[in-house]
Specification:
Radius of gyration: 16 Å
CATH topology: Rossmann fold
Distance between the termini: 11 Å
Number of strands: 8
Strand content: 5-15%
Structural class: alpha/beta
Order of helices and strands: EHEHHEHHEEHHEEEH
Shape: globular
Length: 227
């Protein structure tokens, strides 16, 4: 049977300063999408509120806008997928083999406390599916609990955008919280690459996490190998 992947994207368009735009870091979606598409997997996109997923402007410019990003932007059908994302209530978790949380700073605001996304994540995981994230996408795993009340990430090896990378990217002062520290506070065994911005993927059973935008392809490849 065809494997099915559920991508999660943000609905947030700005930092706390409403004049300062952010959104989905597009390559984190497109790189994974291409890996899964090559495998013949079925794919769908969900967001905390449904509807439009804004794009992080910086992710659409050089040097981040690679061929994958440009191809997506040039394809009206694919571009439309981010204009009408599904709401969690419209998703039947039993139809998916894996959930993949994309990043971009926007997700720090609407991923952590989405009860709908937590429910889907829990159900996919407890049914034997894969839970995964890349970069800031791991914020979507911060508050997810399993049916027994335990934290999904407690005692589990994970990675995601590091605080050092926030500082080097010049955006640390804009952050609503330190995601790396919040992961550690929940008992997660956080890991990061020796050098910032290089690809790193951590696999702990059916939990697969990538550190930064450069990790998206490798994260998707790991998911595919598990499937």
């Amino acid at each position: 049977m065809t494997k099915r992947i559920l991508h999660v994207v943000s609905n947030v368009a700005n930092y706390e300063d409403q004049s300062d735009p952010t959104g989905l870091w597009l390559s984190e979606l497109t790189h994974a999408w291409e890996v899964f598409e090559a495998k013949g997997y079925a794919q769908r996109i969900v967001s905390p509120a449904g509807g439009v997923s804004p794009l992080e402007p910086r992710s659409l410019k050089w040097p981040f806008a690679d061929a994958s990003v440009k191809a997506w932007l040039a394809d009206k059908n694919r571009h439309a997928l981010l204009s009408n994302t599904a709401r969690p209530s419209e998703i039947d978790s039993s139809e998916f083999d894996a959930i993949y949380f994309t990043g971009g700073h926007a997700v720090m605001w609407d991923f952590p406390d989405s009860a709908g996304l937590q429910k889907i994540t829990r159900e996919i995981y407890e049914r034997g599916g894969i839970v995964s994230s890349v970069c800031h996408g791991y914020c979507g795993l911060l508050n997810t609990r399993l049916s027994d009340g335990s934290s999904l990430v407690a005692g589990r090896r994970v990675t995601g955008f590091s605080w050092n990378e926030e500082v080097l990217a010049g955006v640390a002062k804009k952050m609503p919280y330190n995601a790396e520290e919040e992961m550690k506070r929940r008992g997660a065994l956080y890991e990061k690459a020796l050098l910032p911005f290089v690809s790193k993927v951590v696999v702990d059973g059916r939990l697969v996490t990538g550190q930064n935008p450069n990790s998206a392809k490798a994260t998707a490849a790991k998911i595919a190998s598990l499937l």
